[in-house]
Amino acid sequence: QVLPLYHVAGWVVSLLPTALVGGAAVFPDVGFEVATVAVGVPGGTGSIADQGRAATTAALRAAADHAVTVVPGAPGFYHHLLADPDAVRSLASVRLFTSGNAPLAAADEAAFRARYGQPVWEGYGISESASVVTTSLITPAPVRGSVGRPLAGVELRVVGPDGQDLAAETDLPAATERDGEAADDVDAPARGVEADRDPLDTVADAPDAGEVGRIMIRGATLFSGYWPNGGGGPDADGWFLTGDIVIMDPDGWFYIVDRKKDMINASGFKVWPREVEDVLYRHPAVREAAVVGIPDPYRGESVKAVVSLRPDYTQPVTPEDIANFCRERLATYKVPRLVEFIDEIPKTPSGKFLRRALRTT
Fold first, then answer.
1. Does the pTM of the predicted model rise above 0.70?
2. H-helix or E-strand containing 258?
3. pLDDT at 274
4. At what angle do helices 273-280 and 319-327 cross, to 10 degrees?
5. Could you say which residues of the chain have pLDDT below 50?
6. Residues with Cβ within 8 Å of residue 266, at least 6 apart in sequence
7. Helix, strand, coil abundance in the chain, percent, nearest 5
8. Which of 119, 92, 118, 89 is nearest to 104 (CA)?
9. Of 306, 249, 297, residue with least CA distance to 134
């Protein structure tokens, strides 16, 4: 039971389905939050890192002692699992790894697949729809970067600023990759994407041209409205407009781009934090990276990167080094104009980056 039970995902994704099929849920001796596990890496310092390290150790010990077979986690958990030298042995009995809460970084997915010999099956959900909306578990094999297809009984639409449905994106992984064919090189990019560029780069270049849009949901799992007066719920036709920006390809696979509220408008160009973060995670010194927009009197907003460095990386690294690394891989307007190093990136209780705090750190 890696996901905390004070969040709906802990119940809907892991505990209740396990109970429904008569399975055994394993609780580690040391309970943890997603946020504290995310900082429990070798070499970390401070009370939060100590808590995270103890919780991670307890989780791995429980997995080994009880020969667990399924681990539902979150991106931060997998990112830092890669730093634990004993994790592979402790998780040897696991046959299924799943992830939700936020998109899994492409570099982490590739590294995890290379180390463990199996993929992480991603999904997407929101609390307003009883957590789970789409999952790759209902597909033959996961596609890198995709959160799969809708659950049975859940309808999805992708709409533009005018509320009209957008055309499906075609420049995505080829169908043969979705039919269970494993790539020879797990670090290779998805088909149709150049080798040394972020797969989302072309998406952010023209976000209003049909490539991406906001996701709308309809189905029996939707809430009726927000407490206390029931407002903000589905419209008269049952559709609920979320703040999540997605791509839908012709085969009905969904790819989460970012949250609408987190989009950065730099001199009129749209920059999605996730695409810059994916590039930052490729740098060998970066442990965690979060990108936000900050006010700029000339550009409207500028890109700011808040970076936590790996404690075991011994070579000197400067903010200029990080910016230059991005400059070689991103369009100029997407390169962070400010890079700030921080020991631990603040997170919400469910493990997501607390972006509003990062804008003022």
1. no
2. strand 254-259
3. 84
4. 110
5. 34-46, 171-210
6. 293, 296, 299, 300, 301, 302, 303, 333, 334
7. 30, 25, 45
8. 119
9. 249
